[in-house]
């Protein structure tokens, strides 16, 4: 059972916009340290978003992050086939004194 | 250029220990936190622990307390993850990660297989 809650899967068609949610609490997501990763099988995870809405270097502006209270979202616009991957949110938890992850969301591009 | 190069795959029997290394180039391990994250087969990413250079303290996920130790060798700029009392549930790919935003750069991963 992950501390952060993500939907297990989502899908979209090329060109579409999809969002992935990440729900937590005031001690983690509420602390504005939300980080998003893209993970392709057999490769190392890739940092997409940090501090909730800051894009990492080299990440296309099709990817955007937002946060409201204890919930965060990753939006991917102009969906492409190469976006098919697992997406994880993470945040520093002040109460646990640890980084906590969501269970991951598998994005399928139809 | 920042690169994290991890040690090779390991096979251990239940009850044994394993030590995974992560050589960092492009940053000094004294100026950034090096984190350890693992992924078991069919499971998600899981943070295990890290070394905070600000206070020289190691921090660990509660579920690994007592079984995991993270250390750093500043002379070789290498971070280490030591995991003891292995069970089959520790079979996973172990990653190191670091950077100014904590997880900017990742190692290639080290497969640790635990089997009798």
Brief sketch in words of this structure:
Chain A is mainly β.
Extract low-pLDDT stretches of chain B. none
Structural classification of chain B = mainly beta
Number of helices of chain B: 0
**End-to-end C-alpha gap of chain B:** 41 Å
The oligomeric status of these chains comes to heterodimer
Could you give the distance between the termini of chain A? 29 Å
Key attributes of the depicted protein:
heterodimer, A: 110 residues, mainly beta, 7-stranded mixed β-sheet, 3-stranded antiparallel β-sheet, 10 strands, B: 116 residues, 4-stranded antiparallel β-sheet, 0% helix, globular
Blueprint of the fold:
The complex is a heterodimer of chains A (110) and B (116).
Chain A: E1 9-12, E2 18-23, E3 35-39, E4 46-50, E5 54-55, E6 63-68, E7 71-76, E8 85-93, E9 98-101, E10 105-109
Chain B: E1 3-6, E2 10-12, E3 18-25, E4 34-39, E5 45-52, E6 57-60, E7 68-73, E8 78-83, E9 92-98, E10 105-106, E11 110-114
Parallel strand pairs in B: 2-11
Antiparallel strand pairs in B: 1-3, 3-8, 4-5, 4-9, 5-6, 7-8, 9-10, 9-11
What do these coordinates show?
The complex is a heterodimer of chains A (110) and B (116). By secondary structure, chain A is an all-beta fold. Helices cover 0% and strands 47% of the residues of chain A. By secondary structure, chain B is mostly beta strands. Chain B is 0% helix and 51% strand. Chain B is globular and about 40 Å long. The chains are: A mainly beta (110), B mainly beta (116). The interface between A and B is medium-sized, with 25 and 22 residues.
């Amino acid at each position: 059972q992950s501390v952060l809650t993500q939907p297990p899967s989502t899908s979209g068609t090329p060109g579409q916009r999809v969002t992935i949610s990440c729900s937590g609490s005031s001690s983690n997501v509420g602390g504005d340290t939300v980080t998003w990763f893209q993970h392709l099988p057999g490769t190392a995870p890739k940092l997409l978003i940090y501090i909730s809405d800051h894009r990492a270097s080299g990440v296309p502006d099709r990817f955007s992050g937002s946060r409201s209270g204890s919930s965060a979202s990753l939006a991917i616009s102009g969906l492409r086939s190469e976006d098919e991957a697992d997406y994880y949110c993470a945040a520093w938890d002040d109460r646990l004194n640890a980084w906590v992850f969501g269970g991951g969301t598998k994005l399928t591009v139809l | 250029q920042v690169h994290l190069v991890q040690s090779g795959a390991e096979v251990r029997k239940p009850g044994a220990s394993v030590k995974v290394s992560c050589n960092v180039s492009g940053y000094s391990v004294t100026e950034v936190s090096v984190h350890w994250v693992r992924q078991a087969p069919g499971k998600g990413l899981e943070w295990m622990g890290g070394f905070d250079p600000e206070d020289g303290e190691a921090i660990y996920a509660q579920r690994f307390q007592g079984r995991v130790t993270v250390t750093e060798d500043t002379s070789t700029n290498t971070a280490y993850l030591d995991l003891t009392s292995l069970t089959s549930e520790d079979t996973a790919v172990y990653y190191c990660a670091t950077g100014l935003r904590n997880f900017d750069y990742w190692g290639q991963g080290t497969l640790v297989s635990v089997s009798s």
